[in-house]
Here is the input.
Amino acid sequence: MGSNKFGLMTVISITIAVSCLVKVVPIQGQGLVPPVSGLEYGFYQSSCPCAENTVRTSIISFLSSNVSQAGGVIRLLYHDCFVQGCDASLLINDTNGEQTSFPNLTLRQSAFAIIDLIKSQLESKCPGVVSCADILALAVRECINQTGGSFFEIPTGRRDSLNFSSDATVRANLKPPTSNISVLISSFSSKGLNPTDLAAVSGAHTVGTSHCNSFSNRLRPTVDPTLNSTLAIKLQQLCPNSSNINALTNLDMVTPNTFDNQYFTNNLQGNVLLTSDAALLNNTETKTTVQSLSSSTTQFSKQFSISLIKMSMISVLTGSAGNIRKVCSVLNAPGSSAATVTAPVTEIIDEFVEKATIYNT
Ligand code: HEM
Here is the structure.
């Protein structure tokens, strides 16, 4: 096991070194969405030409050892962007604030470690240049593309926060999975995202896993009538009582590790896990989007990319706001440009997979 990890790190180091030699393809600026002020397509083209390739090759290496890591990384972007903006505040390893707030307790520690490792690679190539907020957005883009989703340009130029949020702010901004459609629409609207965006980005639940307690409200005391009855029986077996807190199941039972439009087809058949997923059928606009993205992979790729890019630009810090963190999980030392360097991450262990059994329903 240990030698496999060293092997993986060697592969990552070699591929990252090669990625910086690759001729950089000019960014055409033909993004799907106009960047907000301060962001641009290809922001690092001069200052760190290998930035995007470094993120890409690193993500390819991580996913080649465990493809399910994609879900963990993708989820980080939503949880970061909806709480004080896409500023990497979520990544700070606090003991009494954003990262330790209840909605964030099921985020994968391995996903945080992946972002830290990519940052340490980029610090050795382009010290103090590439922000953690951009690394996260680029890593998510790669996770989507490397699991079968389309490739899309994503604007960069985000800067990192100088602080992290409180528990109360997290709870106010990340709505629980038991939320109804009105709560979800209003939450997204407060971030500048419309009901079509809400339905489209919920399509990220085409990969990744969920714990029982995220959907047990649909199983008892009575079974949610909108849940497919065959799936309900399987989920009751998986989650017989609250003691099985480590049980995980795939969010998309049909193609769990492929970034495709299967989530939308599942939704129309009552085969989604969360109340918030099923709720998309309770509003005309979100339901029409679910139907349309279920029936067309082209439309899915296009609308998902547009809505994800919009989400990735919520309340970004740009220009001279914020800073460029040296280590994504640690705030820079106050009043100093010196790095607060921690030991490089040498092992990425997916603790979810280590501790839990993933049930394929
Ligand atoms: C609409 C509001 C949303 C709610 C209420 C919600 C809620 C949840 C919940 C409860 C889980 C399972 C957590 C667990 O039990 O381990 C989950 C997983 C996940 N969510 Fe969401 N989510 C929402 C939107 C999003 C968005 C916008 C994205 C990204 C674009 C996203 C990406 C993911 C991913 C990839 C997973 C799997 C994580 C893993 O495998 O570790 N979600 N979500």
User: Anything to note?
Assistant: Confidence is low (pLDDT under 50) at residues 1-18, 22-30, 337-346. The CA atoms of residues 55 and 139 lie 6 Å apart. The first helix runs from residue 2 to 19. The domain at 2-22+30-168+314-350 is CATH 1.10.520.10 (Peroxidase; domain 1).
